């Protein structure tokens, strides 16, 4: 029997009903093992009286029963189901909740607008390393707007308009006239008048959640042939979003269906969603757009599984990934990460990199060997792939690539080939940075190459000619010294320094110079 714990979360949204199943292993590491969605368009189907008809409830019941069977197949220990704007704003809310419980056995928790904003914020703040920002979650029937400073939620509001009900109100056959576009802008402006705090925080990034901004992200990435297929933490400038919004706005509905990156179930609501997003961005005088791949469902998980706040987001995320692909002793990975940080500090005058790169080096060192879970003989390339495609939280896309390529570093020439594949994201000096970080990780790994932690303590000190490394060991670290010696030529070529290792085992002292 699987010793891992599985938990399921259902989000009954105004546009889509989603299921996500998380698995958490005994070490505490977690990941999503299944996700599915059904388009419901509840905000579109509801009448002017705001009453859910029997047919609408039947549709929700059918989806929930299907999701319940999936949860059973995955042996989920529990299901937490929540409902947002469409059911919250219905005239017969309590009847809907009771009917769903009676017919499915699932207790549906009704979230207030404040709850929805708070839980979405939890999902974002634990996965993005951003101190302050404006958070906007455009759903089908509501839009939650929050402002946070120094990673603390200051204000939030839920507006009763989203992509679906705005399309229903303003669009004709999926097309918005110029008058309708102005109507949406006026609707948003009027709503903001009651909440002047939003315009008091200009210059912050706008962090977007939900299908509208995810679609915007995919369109942007397809247009630019973006080389890294990640959504979370993707950044867009205002000018680009303005251009995409304008170009989609003049397209017919049929032409919009063919836009690369835009799903066919969103072609008719993308413009109303973008109109809301665009209006809020300019009203708030935000600096740029950031896409969050985490939101309400992630927040629900973190509510019941609080993360370790003592670690940075990047460190937590890397450790989580390591424990999901634990192909080497955890103490070894932690030792290599620690050694890498020591070497980084010792060579500070040589590389001149800011402290952020110390974090990146340590994170990469922690993960340099996870590729063994795929194939031992080619583990560096698999480690690089897992780092690049597993979504390391707390770092940017460029930083993700720095970590990925440093984990696979062998020679500068070989790294240059990988660098060229991501020239759209990486900067010109990054090739040298990757090579230097990679060489530090190689040396750190060599100093515990037996995975036995023979070395109890390592210190490093650099001068103009050499890097002095002093090892205090249980016994003579012959294996580790030989592994380091094999790297000495490349190290000197990279850093212009000879390696000198002083080994001080308990039995006797040994001095080794490698020049």
Automatic annotation (TrEMBL):
Location of the Ppx/GppA phosphatase N-terminal domain: 21-304
Coiled coil stretches, renumbered: none
GO annotation terms (biological process): regulation of transcription by RNA polymerase II
Gene3D superfamilies per the UniProt record, alphabetical: 3.30.420.40, Exopolyphosphatase. Domain 2, Hypothetical protein af1432
Name the UniProt record assigns to this protein: Chaperone protein DnaK
Pfam family, one: Ppx-GppA
Ranges of residues in domain Ppx/GppA phosphatase C-terminal: 330-473
Similarity comment: family membership: Belongs to the GppA/Ppx family. Belongs to the heat shock protein 70 family.
SUPFAM superfamilies, A to Z: Actin-like ATPase domain, HD-domain/PDEase-like
Keywords of the record: Hydrolase, Stress response
Annotated signal peptide: none
GO molecular function terms noted in the UniProt entry: hydrolase activity
